[in-house]
Amino acid sequence: MKTKTKTTLLRALSNFVLLIYCIANLHLIGCRATSSLIVPDQQLADRVPELPGQNFNVKFAHYAGYVTVNEESGSALFYWFFEAEEDPHSKPLVLWLNGGPGCSSIAYGLAEEIGPFHVEKDGKTLYLNPYSWNKVANVLFVDSPVGVGFSYSNTSSDLLNNGDKRTAAANLEFLLRWFERFPQYKGRDFYITGESYAGHYVPQLSQAIVRHNRKNEELINLKGFMVGNALTDDLHDHLGLFQFLWTTGMISDQTFKLLNRACDFESFIKPSELCDKVLDNAYEEVGDIDMYSIFTPTCTAKFTSKQNNSWRRKKVGRLYRAYDPCTEAHSVVYFNLPEVQHALHVQTNNSSLKWDTCSDTVSENWKDSPLSVLDVYRELLKSGELRIWIFSGDTDAVIPVTSTRYSVDALKLPTVSPWRAWYDEGQVGGWTQEYQGLTLVTVRGAGHEVPLHKPKQALTLIQSFLSGKSMPELKLVSYV
After folding, report:
1. What is the CA 272 to chain-centroid distance, rounded?
2. Are the C-beta atoms of residues 394 and 400 closer than 8 Å to each other?
């Protein structure tokens, strides 16, 4: 069947599904036709026609707004959704989550990494990301939980009571309601991706979806998930971190030994006072480098938060378009512009909302964080229902590749395809090993935010993941 014919049939089927949805839910009045597509009114209201500082045209639609996840407390999660550049009707839906806990997916995943719009140095204008993941998928970003980014709750105590369990439940509720607003994506192949503390969010949400699907007729067509430089198991993450710091020559022998004694079996995000003290000593030895990307320069401009002095927070830049380690500061300026918040339908109560990349209130009051999510992996691997990939930038000193390898090894999975290099345009892009039910991929020269430092290779990564194909091998070119 010709591609054009397939596209026409898919669009017609999508329109038919939407029409049935509107009729079945008595929403004919609440639906409108646009470009031969019938959609609910709220979807149209969330459409973002243009952004301040956007001096270029795009051929894809994007939407931003809120989905209420709890009417009683008045809590709502902010989302920003981008249709695929071409033929969105035939492409999968990918959700991206950032972690922290307490950090914004808009700040990092969207504005620095895989989103189509990135912020210029002036903090007022945008440029197109040539390696945006909406080249291969429809991409959805969510600020989660409440209190993060533009997400909010009318009940102030909600911000003091977030945790892993509440976040997974709220994210599931968000998805179920988002699909009601965007019914054309119901039944679409769906994948979840993320990085860092989303190493908890992503498998936990995947588990919640799998369990929901077993009990309900209203299914989410989850096909798999992928996480990068992910917090997975505190014991192995600490063990790998301390070895990485020592083997790269950043800490002394004495501090290496103290770290292993003081922080063994400690929580990664809430260590004991003794462990925290030794960690502080370790980072005094390390000096003023970017722990999220140890071989790139730090931002020397004045910054309004603690982020310049805290290894647990983000402060990395991009290597393409001339590396700029201050990119996070540019986003802070841009997303605090009243005209930007208005364009994104941010609820500001007639005044500008103070936006920050991460919320100290959320992170410092985090309630539950299991020491390991390996049990979640074991449950999902046993079901055999999902495609599961883990990737790791190998210049990250927060959750380094050594930590990830220890966690994967702890699953004791049979090897399907042994360790090998994968290639990008004739150069080694990293290394990979395929296990029964799980694929591990490292990205050479990338930091904690892989798509930021190696955007082209990250696009290859998501393409391979979505297609279910192995990472590229070396292609020999004949010059006959």
Report:
1. 28
2. yes
Give the integer Cα–Cα distance in Å for 397 and 283. 11
Match 């020592």 to its residue by tokens.
246
Q: What is the pLDDT of residues 357-391, one digit of tens each?
A: 999 999 999 999 999 999 999 999 998 989 999 99
The answer to whether domain 46-234+370-467 has CATH 3.40.50.1820 is yes
Instruction: Establish whether the linkage from the previous residue to 414 is cis, with ω within 30° of 0.
Output: no
> Among candidates 131, 129, 207, 220, which has minimal Cα distance to 168?
207
Catalytic positions = 196, 396, 448
Q: What is the pTM of this model?
A: 0.88
Residue with tokens 């790139």: 296
Structure tokens at 256: 């290496």
Return the ∠ at Cα 347 (arms to 346 and 351), rounded to 5°.
100
Q: Contact, 434 vs 462, CB < 8 A?
A: no
Name the phi and psi angles at 193, rounded to 5: -135, 165
Backbone angles phi, psi at 260, to 5 degrees: -65, -30
**Residue 441, beta-bridge partner list:** 391, 432
Cα 226 to chain centroid, rounded: 9
Burial class (CB in 10 A: 0-12, 13-18, 19+), 248: middle
Distance, in Å, from the CA atom of 169 to the CA atom of 367, rounded to the nearest integer, reads: 14
Boundaries of CATH 3.40.50.1820 in the chain? 46-234+370-467
Please write the tens of the pLDDT for every residue from 57-114: 999 999 999 999 999 999 999 999 999 999 999 999 999 999 999 999 999 999 999 9
Asked if 331 and 109 count as a contact pair (C-beta separation under 8 A), the reply is: no
- Give the Cα-Cα-Cα angle 389, 393, 396 (nearest 5 degrees): 130
